[in-house]
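Q: Now give one record:
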Amino acid sequence: MSKSEVLTDREQKLLIALVKMVDQYLDEYGDEVDSRAMSAGEHAIEALASVGLMENINTRFGRWTEAGNQFREEFNRMKGLAPAEKIGGIKLVGQPKSES
């Protein structure tokens, strides 16, 4: 993805969701992302590579590009990701019940 390319809100939301899914469900080994041989993971790496956020190493592994790492950093700084207690949400606290 070139710096001159501007994403629509819809495209940005879709890329954020895809990046978050990759970060949450795929394994990273050093600078490589492992699709775990799942077709969904392989398609995610391929889709992110098509916009320049990742590069395909082979059919199973991908690697974040510089643009991909910058996008991930920007996403992690976006508003709305504050802990629940900071935005008036519910925070569960307590002790587990003892087994009597």
